[in-house]
Each structure stands twice: as structure tokens, then as C-alpha cells.
Here is the input.
Amino acid sequence: MLDFFHANLSYILSGISVGGQYALIAIGYTMVYGILRLINFAHGDVFMCAGLMMVYLSASLPMTASIPLVLVLTVLLGFIIERAAYKPLRSAPRMSVMISAIGVSYLLQNAALYFTGGLAKVYPTIPWLSQTVKIWGSTTKMVTLVTPVLTIILVVLLSLLIKYTKVGMAMRAVSKDFETSRLMGIRINTVISATFVIGSFLAAVGSMLYFTNYASVTPISGSMPGLKCFVAAVFGGIGSIPGAVIGAFIIGIAENIIKGGSSIFGFGGSGWTTFSDAFTFALLIIILVVKPTGLFGEKATDKA
Amino acid sequence: MKKKSKAELWLAFGAIALIYIAVAILEKTVNANSIIFTVLKKGAIYSLVVVSMNLLNGFTGLFSLGQAGFMLIGAYTYAIFTMPTEIKLTESVYKYYEAAVKFDTGIFIGLICAGLMAALFAALIGLPVLRLKSDYLAIATIGFAEIIRAIFQWDVLGPITNGANVMREYLDLTDVTIPFTKIPFPPTLFVFVASGVCIALIVLLINSSYGRAFKAIRDDEVAAEAMGINLFKHKEMSFVISSFFAGISGALLAMYQYTVQAAQFKSAMTYEILLIVVIGGIGSISGSCIASFLYIAASEWWLRGLDMGKFLGIESATVFRSGFRRFVFSIIIMLIVLFFSRGLMGDREISFAGLIKRFNKHAKPAKAAKGGGIDG
Here is the structure.
């Protein structure tokens, strides 16, 4: 067991790190779904846009200025998307809102395609994060160690926010019952905007960590992580923040173990890599069939 | 559904026949390399897959996003079945693998098998996923489409699917011949006939008692079940049939493109198809067809200038550079989604009675009522 652990430490480490990054994105999905019952297909692309903003801003500004600026701009982007594309459809059928989300995703990808000219952009090196460190004999980047810690800190902060502040209480109320909380005088639109702001902020943090690892941003580099993070959110029980985090870690680690499958399981050649993405969806289908509410999901109350 | 009068039906047949004759004449007179044939072929292929998606999303109310996966199955099945055996045995396509499928079939059988294979996969996938509700169904079908894509790229299946490499040298549109002769069949007309027949079958299905059951499920599942409609059976049926036609359109796409590769069938392709459904109107067959042709014409032809540095006489190489077309396009789509969510046709169909009514309304308001009276 210990030998296995030692031999595959690098896969497990990068799994934990990717898992943390996924967790930050998955929270955005799970919160929006909890409140609006909407799969925000554009969330993965917001994450990609945060990556691109960093590329462009850091070209002309110092890192100390561009990091906060990226955070602010991403939050703004999330806010604008909600106001422009989802708010007008608040009373429309759920399918229309989902189509609108797909439309926004398409728009963001095409906008990115136009502005980048379709080329992969090299992500700037964030000084401290990209240092290499040695841990138990395997070298890795600092970001691998920082990610899980930062993720846990942010999640704890978020939980406190949801538990003890007024906005947090409003969020919980809205996700329980949309109409009634409106009758109780909660400003629905403010709460929803706050959700999108938090989600986009975490996605921006996630993008910094993620792209430091992967080094290049393309217009479609948000779509696959986006889908996977949604799966993570469903896996952990949609609407539940700890569930999303645990789901994301499980998916991140499993995916990396499969990527290293040929050396771990000793057969199958390079073919396993093809399945690192497919595995996530297989997991999704299994959980949906076996336990549709996910690991930590509340008992489903059909609100259709 | 209103019962159509005989006159109406004949008019519709006449109009469709006219379209076919026009395509045939066009193909005889215009240079074959003209952009118009690209638009017509691709438009017809997309019409079929868009209508098949509309059958699920618009008529049965199942928000499924797996269409690209079924197209992929269709395209690959077709390519594997119709590639001549001599080519399979040489190294020209299966460079790294030894081809396992050692027979080949004709185009017609290839197309049918493409549909059947997609339908078979759909039947298996449908068993678990069709028990899920709206957005879970959407994400599960996306998931299956991605899994299918991964399976087709898996190198263990290389002897069948050629791994992640390109499939080519199978029978394409130029190999279509008039039955029992060696005379080549006009390619655009062939695509029109093939998707026309399939769309006609879908229309017949929708107007049958099964189609009414689908619509009942869409409108209210609980009420439909109470009326004795077996929910799962009808959902599965709609899913399988839709996938069958998606498979055929995938095969037609493979024929049109000359080469096919699994990497092409990403979820972005499904989104594109879904957006065409929305443009045409969710629940309208004629809307779907019109929207497909408009979409393809706009993206392949009319808006070309946006990518090439010149549009509507304005020249600007910095603004009109590669990718601007799709950018403008997605903005237009967003506007449609937000402000014209009913699309071109809503859930209505083109009908001549309706057209006559509309024209009469402008010309002689008094006779308008009579125009509608044709319906028996």
C-alpha cells in the first residue's frame, strides 16, 4: 500500500490540486442551481474568460495590480451575464433559461475565439505560485500545495457567510422556496446577483490556480472543466457546498489516477487517457441512477 | 392537430415537388463548385438532425443534449460499413491497426445501419437516463455523448474505429448512383431526397397516435400517465427514433465531408443544433427546416465577409478578421433567445390556408374569414 502510494504520489498530488480547483468552480454551479434551479452552462466559460483577462492584463500591468483587477472584472462579468441573460427570463419555463445559458456559453466562446484569434495564449507565471518544491521525493509546483489549503479556507469563509450573515440567510431562504421568500420581503434579485458574484469570484480564483498548472488558455478550455465541475456538484448533492467540494476532490483525484492508469494498473497502454474525461460522466450516470440526490443532497422535493 | 383538407395536402405536395425540381434544375445549370450547393447540402443534412432533435425537445418535452454523440455513431458506422474491403486491407486508412471489419456494403445499407446502430445505442442509454427529469436528463445525455466520443477514440477499438485517426475513402456523395445503373446521381438532390424522406417519416410519426401521446407527455406528464399513456415506453420510443434519424444525418454528414473524425462531434455541435431548433421554433418542423437553411446560409455564405475583411462594402481588416462572423452570429442568437423566444415559427407549421389568410387580410379583410374556411 505504502509502495503504491509512493510510486504514484505525483498523480495523487496533482489530483488533489486539480480537485481543489474544480471545487472552487463547482461551488458556483451548486449555488446557482440551489437558488435558480439552473445549470449555468456559461460558468465554465466565465472561468475561461478569467484566464484570458489575466493573460491580457498581465501583459501591461504588474502582477500585484492585475490579480485584483481580474477578480473584479470576472465578478462584473458574472453579474452582467445574470442581469442580461437570466433575469429577463425569470418567469419563463426552465428550458428557456437553460437555452439562454447555452447561448451565453456559445457567445463567450466565440468572443474569446475572436479576440484571441483562436490561438492558445500562454498563461503568465504568477511568481510565488509557480515555484517548484520537493515533497517526499517528487517535485511539484507550489500551486499544488497552495490549492487545497486555499480552497478549504475559502469554503470555510463561504460557509460562515452563508450561516451568519443576512445575505447568507436570504440565500438559504430563497433556495428553500423562491416564491415565499419573495413574499417575506427578500429582494430576490439582490440575492441572485450575490450568488453570481460569489460564484464568479471563486471561479476567478480557481482559474488562477488551474491555469498556473496548465500554462495555456484557449477559447474552449473552459467547457470541459465546466462540465466536470457540474458533475462534481451533482455527485456531492446539488445545492450542498461541502458536497460540491468533496465531489470535486473525488473527481480530480480519480481523473488523475486514470491518466496515470498505464503505470498504476500496468495494462491498457495510453488508451486510458481517453477515458479520463469519460470517467467523470460515467460516475455522473452511476450516481444519478443509484442516488439522484448525490452524496449529501437534501431529500428531493419536486418543485416542478 | 387540425385535419387538413385534400386541397391543402396537394398544395403541400406540389410545393415540395417544386423544391425538388428546382434543386434538380439548379444542379444541371449552375457550376457544381458554387457555394449554393454547400449551403443546400449542409442545410438539408442539418434540417434532418434539427428536426430529429425537435422531435425530442419540442414534441416530447425531453431536454436531451446527446445529438452529436448519435451523429458520431451514425457517421462512423457508415464509414466502417461502406469503406471498400480492398482499402481496409491496405494501409491507406488503417495505418496503425489491422482492420477487423472485413466486408463492405452499399450506400443504402450503410445509411440504414448507421441509423440502426445509433438507435441501438440510444435504446441502451435510454434505459437509465430517461428516468431522469429535465436538467438532469440534459447533463446525463451530454455525459453519454462524451463517453461515446471517448469510446470511439479508444485505441483498443482501433481495429474497428481506427482510433483517433481520420476515417476516409468510404463511399461519399460522388459515389451515389441511380439504382441498377452506373449513372451518378446528382449529389445535392440525393441529400435532399434522403433527408426529405426521413423528415416525412418524422412528420407522419408526429401526426400519428404515438405523436399525440408524445405531445401529451410534453404538456403534462402526470395527466398523460393518468390517461393511460405509458410514459417510459413513449419516451424511450421518441428517444430511439430521434437517435435513429440523428444517426442517418451523421452518415450523410460523413458522406458530404469525405472525411470524418470523432473529435469533431463535441458538445458544442449539440449546442449549435439546439440553437437552430430555438431559432426555428421549438415544436415546429417547418420552422426547423427553414432555420437550418438560414443558419447554414448565414454562416457559410452571407456572413462570410465578416471573416474576410469586407462586409457590406465596408473594408476593415482589423475588425473583420477571422472569428468575427461567429461572434456576430452568437450575438444574434442571444437576441433571438432573449427577445424572440418563440423563434421563427413558434409551434406552428407553414400552411397554405394560413398564408392565404395572411395575404387576404392585407388585401381584402372581408374575405379573410373565408380563407380560413377551407379547413374541413
Chain A touches chain B through 50 residues (CB under 8 Å). The domain at 2-290 of chain A is CATH 1.10.3470 (ABC transporter involved in vitamin B12 uptake, BtuC). Residues 121 and 169 of chain A are 41 Å apart (CA to CA).
